[in-house]
Design goal:
This protein is of the alpha/beta class. Helices cover 35% and strands 15% of the residues. It has a single domain, classed as 3-Layer(aba) Sandwich (Rossmann fold). The chain has 6 helices and 7 strands, in the order βαβαβαβαβαβαβ. It has a 7-stranded parallel β-sheet with strand order 3-2-1-4-5-6-7, with helices on both faces.
Length: 254
């Protein structure tokens, strides 16, 4: 199990300035467990700054993970610092965006190229490009985890309602890329566990406009979602490699 490593581990978390990403930073950050917090405005985040002011080993990095050049710069700087990372958790994602007009499509007529490109840039391309740049910083012969937050609506088999074209498709494509990554890394990083994770509906800005029909007891706080995901990540072993897992530990069909 990853959590049984003999030395303190370093985790890198994207989407770390809000929502589940921030909650995971808060959950894991301890005197002996360093976290590298990555987001577009990590260094300006009041919540992250407050954690740093407590003297905790938190390293904030401003990175737009949809920009390959910024990802390359991040990897280069971490490599130059001699940084080794045992866990990488991608929590960045997009469902809607008022500044660009991105909203989940209810009908085919609402599908457009801009929405598709924005959804795929963040939800699909960014996670695999993150892996491409940062995997070389992970130990080859020690336990590690590369996990990305996906969504149940990315399941093709579980799609019974339709709609949400760009979000569903971008998450389904992310799942395929991570499944392919899992097959390759089985050979190159034999103790690495690659995971696609569904956190459940969480009370964050991403889900806020769509919470009306969430069943009672199924809207989780970020702290609860973080605890549930952290438990899966920290206890992941070779039997979990390449899985698409819900917050309760159950497999989700692809």
């Amino acid at each position: 199990m990853t959590s049984s490593t003999a030395h303190p581990i370093t985790r890198l978390i994207t989407g770390a300035s809000s929502g589940i990403g921030l909650a995971l930073v808060q959950h894991w950050l301890k005197k002996d467990a360093a976290v590298i917090a990555v987001s577009r405005h990590a260094c300006d985040s009041a919540a992250l700054t407050a954690l740093q002011q407590q003297g905790l080993p938190l390293d904030c990095r401003d990175v737009d993970i949809t920009d390959p050049a910024q990802l390359e710069t991040l990897a280069s700087s971490l490599r130059e610092e001699g940084q080794s990372i045992e866990q990488i958790i991608n929590c960045a994602g997009v469902l809607h965006d008022q500044t660009t007009g991105l909203t989940p499509e209810k009908r085919l007529e609402e599908v457009n190229l801009q929405n598709l490109q924005q959804s795929f840039a963040m939800n699909t391309f960014a996670p695999i490009l993150l892996a491409r740049q940062l995997l070389p910083l992970m130990p080859r012969r020690q336990p590690g985890v590369f996990a990305s937050v996906s969504a149940r609506v990315g399941s093709i088999e579980d799609n019974h309602l339709g709609g949400w074209y760009s979000y569903r498709a971008s998450k389904a494509a992310q799942n395929q890329l991570l499944r392919t990554l899992a097959i390759e890394t089985r050979r190159r990083y034999p103790q690495l566990c690659v995971l696609s994770l569904h956190p459940g509906t969480t009370d964050t800005p991403l889900s806020e406009p769509f919470q009306r029909n969430v069943p009672e007891g199924k809207l989780f706080s970020p702290a609860r979602s973080a605890r549930q995901l952290a438990d899966i990540i920290d206890n992941a072993d070779e039997n979990d490699h390449g899985r698409f897992i819900a917050w309760d530990g159950r497999d989700i069909p692809w």
